[in-house]
């Protein structure tokens, strides 16, 4: 624990992914999913959804291996960037301070850390603004992605993840628990939706997926139709379906490098101060799919490696609990 005050996190803000082929990544994320290019150069694309007024919510940069470079949270004030630096320094974690212009294009002063779970995480306040696209319907295309919604992270120790994010002021909307209330997964939030970050038990640290939101379920279905029409249906990994946890209508895709993205809509409001955590039994086969559809093995076992602050792959550890090993009808595993 630390005596330093935690930074006041507003929301999940953006992710930066290393991709091995920017041309193929552009086809997937821009041409088909419909994200808007805010900035590009020879080595990167900075993208955002139709509802986002900040410079970007996804950065794709050319890399030697496909990996998560970092996830990023926006904090309330510039002072909270200083608080993040002090908080993680006192925890004894690797910390790097970035001045405006030294880090990601469009982002002001920032702090990047490797958190106690092993994930590369950035905290920033200042970011450039983008043109309002909410009613530029002439520019809406593909999956009509509105905004980044959440990160889903694979970690071997869900209780440790829960405790760390509680220390950062996150609430918990839903969990998956065993008979003795052992934690298999947790959904945690700062903005007033189901989650900004979720934790899936498994070998980690690894990125399970990025969740991007659309406004309506028909846009999720349209996304599946687009990949089918293009004879690129192999990019569809799972769904469409309805989650038990979060109630969201979903579709999981894999990009050309294998990064997983969830097209996501129809979750709920969590802003009341007495909002209670909804606890799912690990034996309830509706938890991952409300209709009881099987969860394929790759969804549980495969994920994106993550990099340290110097761009080197971080080592991983095996899970303490394996949700996929619990014999329930929805999984078809174990």
Structure notes:
There is one protein chain. The chain has 334 residues and is α+β, with helices and mostly antiparallel strands. The chain is built from five helices and 18 strands. Strands 9, 10, 11, 12, 13, 14, 15, 16, 17 and 18 form a ten-stranded mixed beta sheet that branches. An eight-stranded mixed beta sheet has the order 2-3-4-1-5-8-7-6, with helices on one face. Strand 2 and strand 3 form a beta hairpin. It is globular and about 55 Å long.
| Strand coverage percent | 25-35%
- Overall pLDDT: 94
The number of helical segments is 5
Shape: globular
**Radius of gyration, whole Å:** 19 Å
N-C termini distance: 37 Å
Unreliable stretches covering 5 or more consecutive residues: 327-334
Q: Which secondary-structure class do the elements indicate?
A: alpha+beta
Assembly level: single chain
Helix amount: 10-25%
Q: What's the main sheet like?
A: 10 strands, mixed
Give the structure's gist in a few sentences.
Helix content is 16%, strand content 33%. It is of the alpha+beta class and 334 residues long. The protein is globular and about 55 Å long.
Give short descriptive properties of this protein.
single chain, 334 residues, alpha+beta, 10-stranded mixed sheet, 8-stranded mixed sheet, 18 strands, 16% helix, 33% strand, globular, disordered C terminus
Secondary structure topology:
Elements: E1 9-19, H1 22-32, E2 36-41, E3 44-48, E4 58-62, E5 67-75, H2 78-90, E6 95-98, E7 110-114, E8 120-124, E9 147-155, H3 158-167, E10 171-177, E11 183-189, E12 197-201, E13 206-213, H4 217-229, E14 236-242, E15 249-254, E16 260-265, E17 278-281, H5 297-301, E18 304-305
Parallel strand pairs: 1-4, 5-8, 9-12, 10-17, 13-16
Antiparallel strand pairs: 1-5, 2-3, 3-4, 6-7, 7-8, 9-13, 10-11, 11-12, 13-18, 14-15, 15-16
């Amino acid at each position: 624990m630390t005596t330093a005050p935690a930074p006041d996190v507003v929301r999940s803000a953006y992710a930066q992914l290393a991709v091995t082929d920017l041309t193929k990544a552009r086809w997937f994320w821009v041409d088909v999913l419909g994200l808007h290019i805010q900035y590009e150069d020879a080595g990167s694309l900075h993208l955002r959804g139709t509802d986002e007024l900040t410079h970007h919510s996804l950065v794709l940069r050319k890399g030697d291996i496909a990996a998560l470079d970092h996830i990023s949270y926006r904090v309330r004030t510039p002072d909270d960037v200083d608080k993040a630096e002090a908080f993680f320094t006192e925890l004894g974690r690797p910390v790097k301070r970035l001045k405006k212009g030294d880090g990601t294009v469009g982002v002001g002063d920032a702090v990047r850390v490797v958190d106690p779970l092993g994930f590369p995480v950035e905290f920033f306040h200042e970011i450039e603004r983008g043109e309002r696209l909410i009613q530029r319907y002439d520019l809406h295309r593909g999956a009509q992605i509105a905004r980044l919604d959440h990160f889903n992270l694979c970690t071997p120790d869900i209780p440790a993840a829960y405790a760390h994010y509680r220390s950062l002021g996150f609430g918990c909307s839903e969990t998956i628990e065993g008979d003795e209330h052992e934690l298999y997964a947790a959904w945690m939030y700062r903005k007033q939706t189901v989650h900004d970050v979720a934790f899936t038990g498994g070998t980690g640290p690894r990125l399970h997926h990025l969740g991007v939101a659309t406004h309506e379920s028909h846009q999720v279905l349209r996304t599946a139709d687009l990949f089918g029409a293009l004879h690129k249906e192999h990019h569809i990994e799972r769904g469409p379906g309805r989650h038990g946890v979060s109630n969201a209508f979903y579709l999981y895709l894999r990009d050309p490098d294998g990064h997983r993205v969830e097209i996501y809509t129809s979750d709920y409001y969590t802003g009341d101060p007495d909002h209670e955590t909804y606890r799912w039994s690990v034996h309830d086969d509706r938890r991952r799919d409300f209709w009881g559809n099987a969860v394929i093995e790759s969804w549980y076992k495969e994920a994106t490696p993550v990099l340290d602050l110097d761009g080197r792959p971080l080592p991983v550890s095996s899970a303490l609990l394996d949700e996929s090993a619990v014999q329930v009808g929805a999984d078809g595993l174990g």
